[in-house]
Amino acid sequence: MAVLTFIHNVVKKFKWKMAIPNEKITCDMMPSPEQGLLIRLYHH
Predict the structure, then answer these.
(1) How many distinct structural domains can be found in the chain?
(2) Close Cβ partners of 44 (under 8 Å, ≥ 6 residues apart)
(3) How confident is the prediction along the chain (44 residues), in pLDDT tens digits per residue?
(4) Is 25 helix (H, G, I), strand (E, B) or coil?
């Protein structure tokens, strides 16, 4: 429940942008970003 509350607050209180907009996607078992999908959070 604590994790859900944390995610809810992050989604509602912050804007986010990808730190590496043109990051490549690798396809092993599932598609995933090469560098882990880094983001920048901005309070709004």
Answers:
(1) 1
(2) 13, 14, 15
(3) 999 999 999 999 999 899 999 999 999 889 999 998 899 999 88
(4) strand
